[in-house]
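Lab notebook, bench 4. Still working through the backlog of constructs that have no structural model yet. Next entry is a single chain of 167 residues. Request: give me the structure tokens for it.
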Amino acid sequence: LHLVALNFPFSGDMRADFQCFQQAQLAGLTSTYRAFLSSHLQDLVTVVRKTDRSHLPIVNLKGETLFSNWESIFDANGGQFNIHVPIYSFDGRNIMTDSSWPQKVIWHGSTANGIRLVSNYCEAWHTADMGAMGQASPLKTGKLLDQKVYSCNNQFIVLCIENSFVS
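Model written out:
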């Protein structure tokens, strides 16, 4: 399953699932992509289909392994990954080195176990208000689910996960 970033950063007011769908289509990818975010409808841990959570590796756009499987992201170590394996945007840029993402932080709105944090997910990703808060992770920690709180007016990286495998 591919883990890919949106082509530009977003504040806490986003239509992330739609953006993931649209950018994947524009990139010529035929699978379904969902935002790597907890929402008012779903915890992050359940975004990938149950049948695909334990046996498929999580890879970047070029097929390099980031995680052995979906479940391993939520094993309470904060989604630790190898920072030397790049994460790419749908248009093929390395988010860790490209200046289009000046802040190397990803929104997630979740606990380390992938459960939604209702107090820290920018009002279900519908506000960029400075007073509202969102849970996010600085990628320099090498973790996708580090537990840091930021104001929703910040423009951060949004990741998308291929949520079902199509052979």
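Notes after review: The mean pLDDT is 95. The chain has one domain: 1-166. Flag for follow-up if needed.
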